[in-house]
């Protein structure tokens, strides 16, 4: 995968290119045709938490009865703020469960302010506060609805996980070739970059093309509750707020995917796994897809700081704000 990666972002400090993030990116048009491909659009990858909207579609098809805030949390990598925790508890309670049923890896809240408040209150890492607890609550609720066992629901051969695996192949158009375990403890299935984008295009267009479908329900939940999908200050929340109709989901290790109401979509993978380039790339790729605004530009601005002040920027190589080769481009000297 790394051998076919290409530069996607240049980090410029003081007029010199200090570092480069390489990876893969694809933008699809409303008809699903490739509008732009950088690197290898067919690269096989772990989409990490960008898979959550797809997993949520699968759970709805399997019998999950959830919409609105609860469904948005099923798609979320939430920051662990009070409204996130209350929402997860509500999903569990509706299924006759409480947070003791969660089996995801205990962690502090993902958001720094939420984590500080949680610890000041005398709390430590829990499954509830781990950023995937909404997905896990929805998994448990699906099992209860279907009469499936909950104790072993994270086993890769459990009926829930097999239903998810089958639906992922349907949504992406790519059969699952690999399986492993995600950071939260749930099974993680592979796909391709273009397959991930294709699935997001289907979800994004579903309210107009297939009202009432599982895909449409996921799209409406995410669009209606962007603060639950991420949290305060998070770029995924800011992007969906800035571009009404957008369905976007970040993923660990440099993944992002987004779908538009017209069926256009994008997906990207930064090969070094860093978060720094993702927001800038998301906004630049959206511009290629025909979605741009001052509000979105603000989401994509990631300043490079020197002594606490901006002295450079993270600049994508695509879109209207594409990097221009600075004079004497080379790695900068020591700080």
From TrEMBL:
Question: Which top-level group of life is the source organism from?
Answer: Bacteria
Q: Name one Pfam family in it.
A: Asparaginase_II
* InterPro entries referenced in this protein's UniProt entry, alphabetically: Asparaginase_II (IPR010349)
Q: Which PANTHER family match?
A: L-ASPARAGINASE, PUTATIVE (AFU_ORTHOLOGUE AFUA_3G11890)-RELATED (PTHR42110)
According to UniProt, the name of this protein is: Asparaginase
User: Which organism is this entry from?
Assistant: Cellulomonas fimi
